[in-house]
Fold this sequence. Notes:
This protein is mostly beta strands. The protein has helices at residues 2-26, 59-62, 110-119, 255-264; strands at 32-43, 47-57, 68-77, 80-90, 97-106, 123-136, 139-142, 148-153, 166-170, 173-185, 193-203, 209-220, 223-231, 234-236, 240-250, 268-281, 284-289, 295-300, 311-313, 326-328, 334-336, 348-351, 354-360. It has two domains: 30-153, Immunoglobulin-like; 158-360, Immunoglobulins (Immunoglobulin-like, Sandwich), CATH 2.60.40.10. Helices cover 14% and strands 52% of the residues. Pfam families: LEA_2 (PF03168).
Amino acid sequence: MVRRRTWLVVLVALGLVTASVAYGVVALDRPQVESVDNEWGTVTSERTEVETRIGVDDPRLLRLGDAAADVSYTVSLNDLEIASERKRRIDAAGDDANVTVSTWLDNDDIPAWWASHVRRNETTTVRVEPDVVVEYAGLRLPAEEWTRTRTVRTDLLEPLRLTERREVRAGGQLLFVVNETDAQWGTATTNRTPIDASATVTNPTPIPIPITEVRYAVRLNGVPVGQGVAGEQTLLPPNSTRTLAATAAIDTDELDEWWVTHLRNDETSTLTVDFTATLEYAGFEREVPLDFLSYNRTFRTDMLGSADAGTVDSSGNQGSAAARNRSVGIDGTSRSSPPDSEPAPPGMVELFGTPVRTTRV
């Protein structure tokens, strides 16, 4: 009987000691994620490195004996998980414990992100979710949940949404008048992103103007990402107004090549859309640029937050889309971009050997 009581006392004492140790550890408070800094690392044609530095606040616990941290985190763009990593038993000693990890995203995932960006009205929500668990004395103490989000917006079609009236002249004679232009995104997929452009055009002359074909070419940072026929044969009857439809398309599955140039250029890109038309006039046929639909648009993103802001909006104000070699940055300023060849005088194109001028009225 005495022996049984003795063992009971010993067990109670051991339980109190264990509870005291556990309480002492827990009393140090749960670790907290204080900061998460992300930046792009190595960029290759096939994959992109994401480097992450996580600041953990609870150095007292991390300095105890063999305490170590298990770290996992994910990076998502519009709920598409593009990168994830998990590392176990990381030593994070120091007054300010910092855990550095890196992971890789597959550039083949970029088309899916682009399609989601366009479908969400050119908006991307970037979400970084770290998870830190400190292990000590057989206990697992998870850090408080911490999530970082930021929003990235672009407005790539804004330069085409104009109600500015412009005249197209040849040899001093009025050919037709562009009353307004517009553009909308079609349904974006991982294979194709349509751009549905249109122009309301008036032919005030007594001569019909046949347009046999409209073609397009799309480039991002000089990388060809789309080309083809944008519109079939149409006729501008005399003294009439018609809407010219032109549908271009970005080959979404080609955007992994552009992505590399975007990151290497400090997340800055220029979208170039060129439309050309084959016209019949006075018995001649010739291809001419459609300046009123063609444009450059410069935009910048900040996916991982190097600008230290919650929202990045690359939209800007552009005076006119009729100026062929103009672009707009996120600060709203217009600036020249280098032409592909020696340009004609401003506002001038050659139509059947005759200068054609586009003017605003």
